[in-house]
Amino acid sequence: MDKQDYLLETCLMAGKIMMESGAEMYRVEDTMIRIADTASKKRGISFVTPTGIFMSLEGEQNIQLKQIPARTINLEKVAMVNELSRSFASNVLTLQELYQQLMALDNETKHFPVWLQIAAGSLVSGTLMIIFGGAWYDFIATCLIGGLGYAIYYYANLWVKVKFMAEFLASFAIGLFAVLAVHLNLGIHLSTMIIGSLMPLVPGVPITNAVRDLLAGHLLSGMARGTEALLTSCAIGIGIAVIFRFFL
């Protein structure tokens, strides 16, 4: 691999990690171009989409592509890539050291334990239920329902290969558990219990990133991310609608 290919591979690795971790398109492009401009006298040219990244240098015919098979939210990895790119731009790291650290970061799984994610989802569900006007009597039931719903969402993402099916299954289970809780007198306000339990599933970050991409002029990626967030919201809504149709 010559120096130019090595540079493009490094830029693409940085962009891949950021895209898979939920970074905005303009931030990904800015990081890749900063690395290319620091390592080469030629300006970097990048084209970023939600499913793939293209990278080249100005005046060169060599173009490399990196596929983005999956996307999640991991802002810690985004911050670490930004920090590495700034260190490289300040000549603290060499290109080889940057590539090696990016490879190590890509292979490293920086996620909180599953039990902690479920516990956080439970606490968020109960807290937001109160904020939306719910009763304290419903707090414990909402926490349990929110935790169970998030657990179903997490494991369905691992087992089910159909995208958006995990959100549907989780919202369906949340609606069913909430109806059962009210019928068993474990809760009072069905609507606020459902709303609070669903909040950990709501695609808030993708919607925010879609709007920021549109405002930054990335119309293609902004529309793609907005559509993905809309389909996720529809899957959540359909799961609750099925419960209301057949159980209420």
From TrEMBL:
GO terms for biological process: succinate transport. The keyword Ligase does not apply. It is found in: Cell membrane. InterPro entries: ThrE-like_N (IPR010619), ThrE_Dicarb/AminoAcid_Exp (IPR050539). It comes from the Bacteria. PANTHER family: SUCCINATE TRANSPORTER SUBUNIT YJJP-RELATED, UPF0442 PROTEIN YJJB-RELATED. GO terms for molecular function: transmembrane transporter activity. Belongs to the ThrE exporter (TC 2.A.79) family. Residues 10-246 form the Threonine/serine exporter-like N-terminal domain. One of its GO terms (cellular component) is plasma membrane. Its main location: membrane. It is a multi-pass membrane protein. Pfam families: ThrE. The chain crosses the membrane at residues 112-133, 139-156, 168-190, 229-247. The keyword Transmembrane helix applies. This is Threonine/serine exporter-like N-terminal domain-containing protein. Coiled coil: none annotated.
